[in-house]
Design goal:
The chain is α+β, with helices and mostly antiparallel strands and about 325 residues long. Among the domains are: about 45 residues, Uridine Diphospho-n-acetylenolpyruvylglucosamine Reductase, domain 2, CATH 3.30.43.10; about 100 residues, Enolase-like, domain 1, CATH 3.30.390.50. It contains 13 helices and twelve strands. The strands form three sheets. A five-stranded antiparallel β-sheet has the order 4-5-8-6-7. Strands 9-10-11-12 form a four-stranded antiparallel β-sheet, with helices on both faces. Strands 1-3-2 form a three-stranded parallel β-sheet, with no helix packed on it. It is globular, with a radius of gyration of 19 Å. The structure holds flavin-adenine dinucleotide (FAD) and iron/sulfur cluster. The site of flavin-adenine dinucleotide has 29 residues, from strand 2, helix 7, helix 9 and strand 8.
Length: about 325
Amino acid sequence: MNPFVYRRAIDPRGAIDMAARPDACFIAGGTDFMQLWKAGISAPNLLIDISRLPLTAVERHDGGLRIGALARMSDVADHPEVRNSYPVLAQALLASASPQIRNVATIGGNLLQRTRCLYFRSGSLPCNKREPGSGCGARDGENRLHAIFGASAQCAATHASDLAVALVALGARVLLASQNGERALLLEDFFRLPEAQPEQDTVIAPGELIASIDVPAAGTWRSYYLKVRDRASFEFAVVSAAVVLDLADDRIRTARIAAGGVGTRPWRLRGCEAALIDAAPNAATFERAARLAGEGAQPLRHNGFKMALLERTVLRALQAVRGDL
Ligand SMILES: Cc1cc2nc3c(=O)[nH]c(=O)nc-3n(C[C@H](O)[C@H](O)[C@H](O)COP(=O)(O)OP(=O)(O)OC[C@H]3O[C@@H](n4cnc5c(N)ncnc54)[C@H](O)[C@@H]3O)c2cc1C
Ligand code: SF4
């Protein structure tokens, strides 16, 4: 294990200034960072503890909700505004990890967690994400849990965060702060496709801090998160679906669906969305839309089953939004 210098930041400005060094890394709850550090996958010389930064508020903002990057997963899941207006968020958070982890893990850290691909985490197997140019062990190896959307020849690892899937379905934006000022971008655009550089999961720049997440006003939206996994708790998604519908006058005015466990980043199911908009929210519409979920998928040797599973997961999530389940 690499020895490092530890510093605790007490305000965002101080954290950003310390992070100007290229060998620095932030630590929030530490639940992912410590695993990567112990495995030798992450080895910063300067570790900046941001867990005490005053970025923990969950509050109304511009009609929507602003969630501080240092808010704990458990606090956000339990927030009345989240439970009442954004059930998809509360459901995604409560389906993540364990209560103990959710009590220390933060929203920003959750979005920046690294993939659970076992070749990436093992430290000794070929993996372009961990060691660029070393190859991808999963492509011709064990790839049951890998992506059917968005993979490249270099990498087919899925993004692990449940929360990210729900936030993408809600059209959330991420606010980033650095010595160059602030910028905001759609969370959907924050995550990168692996293409030729799978070592970069997101577009975050070195030293940039996630300050908060902005979720648009919920209005009359109804939402639901459904996660299918190999065991009932403490497990990552094999397939998941976050559905956000705006229903009015027995018509679907807007529809946003994102899937987890199937893409190299949270994956919008635009074909399903298009089939729902302006249609009546009935069983036939939902079945027709769900049948489009696997459109464009490129399964690997062991994960073709995800296409049918995704279709059924989307259908059940749609039924749940309407209250059929
Ligand atoms: C056993 C286990 C099961 C799990 N199951 C699930 C699951 O089912 N679903 C799921 O979604 N997740 C799951 N997780 C992942 C867990 O949710 C994440 O480890 C956690 O959310 C990370 O948050 P953290 O605050 O501990 O981040 P840290 O470990 O502190 O940081 C993670 C990364 O984010 C960076 N970082 C953190 N905050 C910021 C910030 N504000 N700005 C810039 N960079 C930042 C750090 O530098 C680091 O690179 C599981 C984890 C474990 C250990
Ligand atoms: S799928 Fe990606 S993370 Fe997994 S071995 Fe291949 S390059 Fe590494």
